[in-house]
Design a protein that fits this description.
The chain has 521 residues and is α/β, with parallel strands linked by helices. The chain has helices spanning 2-8, 60-64, 66-69, 77-94, 131-134, 139-148, 176-183, 190-193, 216-222, 240-253, 266-278, 292-300, 312-322, 337-343, 345-353, 369-381, 398-405, 428-436, 446-460, 466-476, 479-485, 508-517; strands at 24-26, 29-31, 195-196, 208-209, 212-214, 226-230, 258-262, 282-286, 304-307, 328-330, 360-364, 388-393, 439-444, 496-500. A 6-stranded mixed β-sheet has the order 5-6-14-11-12-13. Helix 11 (266-278) links the parallel strand 7 and strand 8 (282-286).
Length: 521
């Protein structure tokens, strides 16, 4: 039989005549250069799961439809007869029973009494039942396909046009994430590691599941492992999209006609992104201290931008006035229960990502929305005993002053360069959180925050804004070691989790300007 197969093998056209380099694909038949292809099919030398080598059972349709495939198969009647005998022999071994109307030298598929067998492992030939037995798929390839799900087959080519009897294999639509993985090469960047978040309250949220990575440089500075929750890769550039996106979705369901938001930058960008996704207009009021960068980004998202006042509190007063218009709904940047509920998703993701609860969570505090969300998440997952390090810059330290006084305190002015932390008065909920969980307040100088931004850029190749530089400075400066020596943190300390809150309002020229302003050059 081996001799028959070798003698009767037809001429194979050059690779240039076929769309698949290194393989010949016609009527679902793949011929490679090796002489044992007919009797010992194996994985293609291209190591591709999409184009396997087929068993002789797949060869018969090409022979039988010789009128269509004659340029490739059966130049002589002798070749057709010998190859047909080989195919029938193989089918007999496979135990396939065919109708009595099947002929050896000619076959009309419409006269066959047995319909084509559907084989879930045969993406090229839906009617072929022998591909699963003929193809030897490596275990690791099978594992990848099992994890990828049905959509992993949508890259396979449809049946060739000469197979008139077979319907094209249905292509799975799959999920949006799965389709994106197929259309583009594997993305190994940090942003590529982010995944779509699970629906919250019946709606798919606008944020993504941000990656958690270990930082070797921060781990060395702290003396224990430090993991980073990279919220700067969110669609709007910061964690704000979690809570504000959730609030905007709720307002849209209730009939909102226009959003209005006051922001130092990140909250407005999150609201503008959500408004664009919901196809609703939005007006964002920003203070003059925000600078031109957030204004430009807000306009790119389609928001109407109004610059009002010097600090966020001034802009917030203007937004409250605009919200009196019928149909307009104000989107608070940090002080709303739905905002906190959305931010709590961050901790739920940590529960799934980390092997054990962290020894401490380090966050930046401005108005207190992130702090309130983290506390809500810790309570949801049963991590209430995890200490929270709340970092602020001097000149925007309203939370620190409120903790000292035991009540809300309004700062006379915001003097810090970390304008995104610039709330003169922290949310009342943030002060309550300090009574429900262990919250340790830490205040750093502007110079420390900006220096930490530069060091983080050098270490992790990530550029973040001074607001995020505050918690970075706490880690780089060794303040956690001091808290351990004071007995306020346990020693040894379990791995620490840093929330990299965002970096929308920063660029390299601005960083150089800040360094020059603070005398750090």
């Amino acid at each position: 039989m081996l001799l028959i197969a070798l003698l009767s093998r037809p001429r194979v056209p050059k690779a240039a005549e076929w769309p698949c380099r290194g393989a010949v694909l016609c009527s679902g038949v793949v011929w490679e250069g090796s002489r044992d292809v007919l009797l010992a099919p194996k994985t293609s030398s291209m190591r591709s799961r999409a184009i396997p080598e087929l068993s002789p059972a797949c060869c018969l349709p090409a022979v039988l439809l010789r009128g269509v495939c004659s340029p490739v198969w059966g130049r002589t009647l002798k070749s057709c007869i010998l190859l047909s005998l080989l195919c029938v022999w193989h089918w007999g071994r496979a135990g396939t029973v065919w109708g009595s109307q099947c002929s050896l030298f000619g076959l009309c598929w419409s006269q066959c009494s047995v319909p084509p067998l559907q084989d879930s492992l045969c993406p090229l030939l839906p009617g072929c039942s022998s591909l699963a037995r003929a193809t030897e798929e490596p275990p690791e390839a099978a594992g990848l396909r099992a994890r990828a799900g049905p959509s992993s087959r949508s890259l396979l080519p449809p049946p060739p046009p000469c197979l008139l009897w077979s319907a094209p294999a249905p292509q799975s639509k799959g999920s949006a994430v799965g389709e994106d993985k197929q259309r583009h090469p594997a993305d190994t960047s940090i942003r590529g590691q982010a995944m779509a978040a699970q629906p919250l309250g019946g709606q798919k949220p606008f944020h993504v599941v941000s990656p958690v990575l270990e930082s070797l440089s921060l781990s060395k500075a702290v003396g224990t492992k430090v993991f980073m929750k990279l919220e700067n890769v969110q669609p709007s550039g910061s964690f704000k999209i979690r809570g504000i996106g959730h609030l905007c979705q709720d307002a849209a369901k209730k009939g909102c006609r226009r959003f209005v938001c006051s922001s130092g930058g990140n909250a407005g960008l999150a609201a503008a992104y959500a408004a664009r996704e919901l196809a609703l207009p939005i007006t964002v009021v920003v203070p003059s201290s925000s600078g031109p960068t957030p204004v430009r980004k807000l306009q790119q998202l389609g928001a109407t931008v109004e610059v009002y006042g010097k600090v966020w509190d001034d802009a917030n007063s203007r937004a409250q006035e605009l919200a009196k218009t019928e149909g307009w709904v104000i989107i608070p940047p940090f002080d709303h229960p739905l905002v906190w509920e959305g931010h709590a998703s961050l901790v739920r993701e940590l529960k799934d990502s980390l092997e054990d609860k962290p020894g401490a969570i380090v966050v930046a505090v401005g108005g207190g929305g992130l702090l309130a969300g983290v506390v809500a998440g810790l309570q949801q997952v049963g991590w209430q005993d995890v200490p929270i390090i709340a970092a602020e810059t001097l000149g925007a330290h309203s939370f620190h002053e409120a903790l000292k006084a035991g009540r809300l305190v309004t700062l006379p002015d915001i003097t810090s360069v970390a304008t995104c932390l610039g709330a003169k008065t922290v949310a009342a909920r943030a002060l309550e959180c300090a009574q429900e969980c262990q919250v340790l307040s830490q205040v750093v100088q502007d110079a420390e925050a900006v220096r930490a931004v530069q060091q983080f850029l050098d270490d992790e190749r990530l550029l973040v804004e001074p607001a995020c530089g505050a918690p970075l400075a706490v880690l780089y400066s060794g303040r956690l070691r001091r808290l351990q020596s004071e007995g306020r943190l346990p020693s040894p300390l379990r791995p620490v989790l840093l929330v990299v809150c965002g970096g929308s309002n920063i660029h390299t020229a601005q960083l150089r300007a800040l360094q020059s302003q603070l005398g750090l050059e």
